[in-house]
Design a protein that fits this description.
Blueprint: H1 2-13, E1 22-25, E2 28-30, E3 43-45, E4 48-51, H2 57-66, H3 109-118, H4 126-133, H5 146-157, E5 185-187, E6 212-213, H6 225-235, E7 246-247, E8 251-253
Parallel strand pairs: 5-7
Antiparallel strand pairs: 1-4, 2-3, 4-8, 5-6
Length: 256
Amino acid sequence: MRLFALILSLALGLGAAEPVRMVTIPAGAYVPLQRSTKDAPEVRVAAFLLDARPVTNAEFLAFVTAHPKWRRSQVSRLFADSSYLEHWAGDLEPGPTAPAAAPVVRISWFAARAYARSAGKRLPSTAEWELAAAAGYTRPDGKNDEDLNRDLYAWLARPVPAVQRAVASGRPNFHGAYDLHGLVWEWVDDFNTAMVTGESRGDSGLERDLFCGAGSVGAKDTTDYAAFMRQALRSSLKANNTTTALGFRCARDLPR
C-alpha cells in the first residue's frame, strides 16, 4: 500500500487529476428493482464514505506500476478478459486514448477490487451505490429532478466516446459526488449477488447474474428506462469482463 501511495503521488504530480476526496453518504434506504416475496421492501444502508469521482487512468497506472500482476501483459485471464486495458498504449503507458484525468475503463471486477484494497478502501455495495446515485443535483431524492434526468437520458442516447472526458468535469450531486450518472458504468462489490439484501446467496426466486452500478434513479418505477438498461447490462457480465464504458470508484466505512 505504501509503494502504491508513493507511485500515485508521483503520477498526480505529472498532471493527473487531483487526489480523490471522499464524500459522506448519509444512512438511508434502497428499494431494489427486483425482490422475492420473502424480502423486505427496502434495504437499510448505514452511512458510509464514497469517492467523489471514479478512479482515473493516472491512478490505475500507479496501481499497476506497484502491482505488476495487474498489468495488461501479465494479468491472468481468470481475472480479466482479453479486452482488459486494451485501449492503453502499453502496460505502463495509457496513451492518447486514455487521458490521465479520464476514468479508467476496460477494468474487470477482480482488478477493481484489488485496486480498492491496495488503497485501503473497498468497492461500494449495490445498495450503497444506488443510495448515493439516487440523489439529485440539489436534493437527496433525484427521482423527479428534471435536470438530472435530462442529463442521464442524453448520456444513455449517446454512443460511447473513443476518449472519455475528465472526471469531475460535470455537475456534482446533492452529496458532492460526481459522475454517478453520465460518464461510465461502475462496478460494485456484490456484483454476483441478487440485488436485494447483501445476504442474497440465501434468497430465492431471483436472477443470479452479475451486477454493477449504472445510470439510474430509483428502479422501482416500471417507466424508469435507465434502470432496465442497467439490469440488461448486469445480466450480461462476468467477473473478468471488461467493457469500453465500465469503470469504478471506491468506498470506505465511516470511522467508528
